[in-house]
Amino acid sequence: MKSIDLIVPCYNEEAGLEHFVAETNKVIAAIPDYRFRYILVNDGSKDKTYLIMKRLAAQFDNIKYISFSRNFGKEAAMYAGLQHADADYVVVMDADLQHPPAVFPQMIEAMNEGYDCCATKRDEREGESFFRGAFSKLFFRLSNRLTDVKNPYGAMDYRMMTRQMVSAILELSEVQRFSKGIFSWVGFQTKWISFKTVDRELGTSTWKFSSLFKYAIDGITCFSVAPLRFTAVMGAIIFFLSLIYIIATLIQTLFFGIQTPGYVTTLCAVLFLGGLTEMSIGILGEYIGKIYMETKERPIYITKFSNFEDEDNEEK
Ligand code: UDP
Ligand code: MG
């Protein structure tokens, strides 16, 4: 019998975790040919998520949990789950039922067709603001253009993967993790399926627009140095343009004498170059910051409690 591990990062999910397990169990019950196991990762929740996890683990013997010492972020939680997974197929999904377990049969079918991964993308983005929608569209276009990462618009983390693909993902042990990029970067055959998105039933989404913006910047800078090249190209263009301007001014001065200097021209040049320099330093800083964080080689997460047998950290 083949096995499937469900990796579920949970951050402040006390309101919906039990409901999630109940709903998912209903789907699992209809797929008796596969042995399912949950790997719930408590990402330093500030509410009772951990207690609920422990209760669920006591209730169902196919529930494993890992609880972090603090909030390390969803990416870290996914990594921890992937490290602990040992099933034939591994699923990563959210705890808020926005990633409906109902598509499991479709995913399993894709895997049986020979795909290494069955990933989901959203078709309709109901309830999303125009601004947010336009921003994410722009991001998908940019990142597909600038990086090796090719994702369709609306690609989500929710997916089923083979053990082999999971091993490849674990090889990428960088601290600055951008899963959508990593999933795509490792290659393998991915089948994309889509479903209508649903609103979060219980609890609240922890994403703000500022984090979305940071997510977009990371998505590009983690997988490409194109922004650095852009600053170099801009620098070169401005250098040649100013060379032409200098020569022209020189000739003009030599033949027609000194002209009254233009206040507006000077101001524009100063502001334009100042802005451009600041931006270039910012882009550079983005990369240096990433190098700095990577060179520390800190662990991606720290476990406080878990009920995995091989780890000696079960709460007494
Ligand atoms: N999550 C997490 N750590 C965090 C933030 C979120 O593990 O720091 C989990 C959260 O519990 C959920 C999933 O990541 O299972 C997606 O979070 P959310 O629903 O808030 O995001 P959205 O659906 O808006 O992408
Ligand atoms: Mg959600």
Fold topology:
Elements: E1 2-10, H1 17-29, E2 34-42, H2 49-59, E3 63-68, H3 74-84, E4 89-92, H4 104-112, E5 117-122, H5 130-146, E6 155-162, H6 163-171, H7 179-185, E7 190-195, H8 209-221, H9 226-256, H10 263-295, E8 303-306
Parallel strand pairs: 1-2, 1-4, 2-3, 5-7
Antiparallel strand pairs: 3-8, 4-6, 5-6
Uridine-5'-diphosphate is lined by residues 9-11, 13, 43, 71, 73-74, 77, 94-96, 98, 200, 205-207.
Tell me about this structure.
Helices cover 49% and strands 16% of the residues. Strands 7-5-6-4-1-2-3-8 form an eight-stranded mixed sheet, with helices on both faces. It has two domains: 2-223 and 300-315, Spore Coat Polysaccharide Biosynthesis Protein SpsA, Chain A (Alpha-Beta Complex); 226-296, no CATH class. The longest helix has 33 residues, at 263-295. The protein starts with a strand and ends in a 10-residue tail after the last strand. The chain is built from ten helices and eight strands. It is elongated and about 90 Å long. The protein has 316 residues and is an alpha/beta fold. The protein has helices spanning 17-29, 49-59, 74-84, 104-112, 130-146, 163-171, 179-185, 209-221, 226-256, 263-295; strands at 2-10, 34-42, 63-68, 89-92, 117-122, 155-162, 190-195, 303-306. Helix 5 (130-146) packs parallel to helix 8 (209-221). Uridine-5'-diphosphate is lined by residues 9-11, 13, 43, 71, 73-74, 77, 94-96, 98, 200, 205-207. Residues 94, 96, 98, 200, 205 line the site of magnesium ion.
